[in-house]
Amino acid sequence: MKHKIPLILIALGIAATLAVGMLRNKSVGPDPLQQLKERYAKKAIPSVDHSKLAILQKKFSSPQEVTTTCISCHTERGKEVLGSSHWNWEREEYIEGHGIRSIGKKNILNNFCIGVSGNLDACDKCHVGYGFVDTEFDFQEEKNIDCLSCHDNSSTYVKTGKGMPAASVDLNYVAQHVGNPQRENCGTCHFFSGGGNNVKHGDLDKSLFNPNREVDVHMASEGSNLQCVDCHTAENHKMLGKLYSVSSMNRDRSTCEQCHTAIPHEDNTLNEHTLKVACQTCHIPTYAKVNATKTAWDWSTAGTLSAGQQVNESDSLGNPTYMSKKGTFSWGRNLKPEYIWFNGTAGHYFLGDTVSAEQPIQVNTLHGSYDDPEAKIIPVKIHRAKQIYDPVTKMLIQPKLVAAKKGEGAFWKDFDWNHAAEEGMKSLGLPYSGEHTFEETVMTWPINHMVAPKEKTVQCVECHTRTNSRLANLSGFYMPGRDSNFIVEILGKAAIVIVIFLVMLHSAARVTVRIRNRKEQA
Amino acid sequence: MNLKQVYVYKGFERFWHWMQAVLILFLALTGYEIHGSFQFFGFEQAVRFHNISAIALLVLIAFSIFWHLTTGEWRQYLPTRKFLRAQAEYYIFGMFRGAPHPTKKTVLSKLNPLQKLDYLFLKVLHIPVMVVSGLLYMFYRYPQGRGIEALNIEGLEIIAIIHTAGAFLLIAFVIAHVYLTTTGHTPTSNLKAMITGYEELEEEPSGLEIKETT
Question: Cα B122–B127–B130 angle (5° rounding)?
Fold first, then answer.
């Protein structure tokens, strides 16, 4: 017995060492998160104070003059912008089944205001150029680049119709106060896409101008205070990051891994998740945290007027629920995302495609499945709509919505779908049969922003659970906690029940025999 | 019949037995939480505890294999057909008629033929299957994560099915095992033996460590 004691002690010692080692789970070396915080706490001091430059003191009479002045020093930047998506609103992409197409905002539909073609009057104030009013616009003309929309640091620059600065803008003042793009520059367009705050994205809205930690842990003013361009870096005006509403290929993406690496957790089990689960899936538990985002848009009810006047109705939060111009809306705040498999490539509905309306029409389709080694689970906002469709040509219709005056066929002036459809399709050189219906469409918007603090991340059990799993709709794989095999469950439980039954039967028999024996002895 | 207090279960043997019992029960508790059967520790902690106790069990198994080999105790599990039927009949009929155990328990032969077969199955098949499926469960993503395509395991389903089925059987085994400990000389004599190491056995002529009953 005695000589066994050391053996037992050794065994216990090894077991304890292993257990402590696993419990410790701590990386050696400086904390990478701390290093990141330190890196981004250093705010760069600009090497040039533009307000001291003599060339910017002269009185500018047109915004194009400002651009020419910018390019006189920054000689190569104009060419860079001419090659950028912010300027072209399209780029060449390879799309499975369609080959190489030049696609973008210019020619891709959405299920909000449907598309920019024919509606540029309303859309061009978010173009980084001056005068993009029709297809005649010269995309090779550097002096039409609007440098200020992105580089104004004075907060006084405002764009209006035709993409021109508002009359109130003091071009000299703005030109003397330029710098790296701030959240305000990006947000002015990206937070209000779709015609209002947070309408489209759900994860990009005006609350991000000055968010707290709960809303966005990176952009929190009291925290790292990151600007958009800290992640969406722009080497030679080629920005990282894009959205699959208009993009198709797995390239130029802005990713969490840029800073956080592919193995960011101290816990290995969590790190292994990154093979199949995108960071956003766990770290963005809800989106539209502060202001509501549009979740559904029914165009079919648009056009109802009351005594010749437009009707506008809103919910208690001030979100429009009905507009004569646009139809009926649904909104949601603090929404749990839906989840899909995504491999970084997407397909789109292209103008002129014929498509059956029996199923909801996918305006964009994000590809991926469990079996695809490139695919990960990502959170998405699904925007559902009913939009105008030609049942004869089987095409989605791009209606003309905007015009300066009545009689040009713009729906928002004349409230005549037929005329708007005819004018819209004519401007694209596409046929319109004269008949239209309203059909269900869906659009998928990846959720990438509003990253929560780590204590607010999605907990394991929110997915790994039998009931109401966040990933309940994803199939093709076995997930512990969510899934079980029906036969194993039945047979396994049966085995236990049978053993318990036999034990009870056997012990009952033993007790009976014992009682009988005692009686016989007595 | 001459009964003697015999030292049947050695110190390490008892330590191994009880440690294994505790770890298996804890693995069952945490395992069924991971399986989604109930919530107790919370999923994250359950996974953590399950993994840690699995490693602890592996260490224990390594030591017990060493012990079995060096002491020759592994021979206890060599299956035999002798008295196998008699042992089964004893549990079904004999014990109700007051018949004696068909096999004699001695230090050199602690296990009756049914136990030999059952524990052999447990040791060479059941537990190894649980260990291997468990390790695959833990590490099946490792090849893919490191780009070792040839060893890639696509899904968890088969692994999970085997591991879960094994868990159900293990629970069934534990229930039967605990019940059968009550079928010794007295309902608690086997349990006491596994705690103290000593059990009252019929005297056997051997030079092994035997104490006189006091």
Answer: 140
